[in-house]
Amino acid sequence: MSADQTRDGYFGEFGGSFIPPMLQEAMDYLSKQFYTFKDDPEFNRELDYYLKEYVGRENPLTYAEQLTRSWGGAKIYLKREDLNHTGAHKINNVVGQILLAKRMGAKRVIAETGAGQHGVATATACAMFDMECVIYMGAEDTRRQALNVFRMELLGAKVVPVTKGQARLKDAVDEALNDLVENYKNTFYLLGSAVGPHPFPTMVKHFQSVVSKESKKQILEKEGRLPDAILACVGGGSNAIGAFAHYIDEPSVRLIGVEPELAPTMTEGVPGIIHGFRCLVLLDEEGNPKPTYSIAAGLDYPGIGPEHSHLKTSGRAEYVTVSNEEVLAAFQELSRTEGIIPALESAHAVAHAKKIAPSMSPEQILIINLSGRGDKDVEQVFHMLKK
Ligand SMILES: *Cc1c(COP(=O)(O)O)cnc(C)c1O
């Protein structure tokens, strides 16, 4: 599905925009600018330049020889988003949106962050592009992620602790949106995943689809054929939609999203509206978004991007869950066998690959999207394994 076909922001029954009129005005303005620049040759030249020189693209599609031998089935390839500057896929979207913000004449960038990863990626790019940067973060999260707050400040960002509500991510999003309503003529809201009202899911996909654009070219060069399946972890869904994008219209390629057992949005979610868009969402008995829990902070979200919701209900993609134990085992196994310490989020995809690879034939190919590196998680895993 091309971005133009989804210009209204709907993917089947999901997506759209359910927000107050003031905010809708800001979204309409953003949409107009995005559709103006996304196919502009000069804009894309600039984007390619920074993806190469700053992010370090293209990153490799590494053949995981040891893992393939030890699992004894399909050939395993790893798409190495962990090798990007700042260590994950988030920077792809951040650089794209910052360049758009610049074209729109914005002087100020705001963002929400939960665990701090999107905040750090945003602060990084704002430093480089000399933009004023304000990061809204739940006060509760600023305490738990003090080091990431320091990182953002080191990069020149102002971190605003939000004390309203439960002082968590949802409250940080609300504060950022209030700021945007007031200031949208000179302020750009840089959203971190393929969620939110239109045009965010379409825009984030657009900037993350560089992942599958590269992997498709790389696998054709290496193997002369398409892979049999792509696996990616899903939180809000940005690394997965980027990893799937160029294969959605290739019916022979299975698309598999992997989520935590304790945040099973796709396997147990029902249609509903959160954060201004319609998607599959986990609700409690009262119909409120259900608290989720994942050892990978980046996957802790009760909703999921609207396109994933559609890919699931239409049957084009499959979504599965893995347990914390399986994730911890995969984290260690990839470290030991390939010398690559994955992010705990990415280890979800590795854990499911381990379940399906052995029953596949050696001619078959799996690509695991390694969304990020695990340096940020080493201390947490240390404490979990010590117990
Ligand atoms: C943030 C993050 C995720 C989850 O976000 P998506 O939008 O679902 O991709 C996954 N992996 C890593 C390394 C992250 O930092």
Automatic annotation (TrEMBL):
Co-factor(s): pyridoxal 5'-phosphate
Native species: Paenibacillus hodogayensis
UniProt cross-references to PROSITE patterns, sorted A to Z: TRP_SYNTHASE_BETA (PS00168)
Protein name as annotated: Tryptophan synthase beta chain
Reaction(s) the record says it catalyses: (1S,2R)-1-C-(indol-3-yl)glycerol 3-phosphate + L-serine = D-glyceraldehyde 3-phosphate + L-tryptophan + H2O
E.C. designation(s): 4.2.1.20
Gene behind the chain: trpB
InterPro entries xrefs: Trp_synth_b_CS, Trp_synth_beta, Trp_synth_beta/beta-like, TrpB-like_PALP, TrpB-like_PALP_sf
Residue(s) carrying N6-(pyridoxal phosphate)lysine: 90
Annotated GO MF terms: tryptophan synthase activity
UniProt keyword annotations, A-Z: Amino-acid biosynthesis, Aromatic amino acid biosynthesis, Lyase, Pyridoxal phosphate, Tryptophan biosynthesis
Lineage: Bacteria, Bacillati, Bacillota, Bacilli, Bacillales
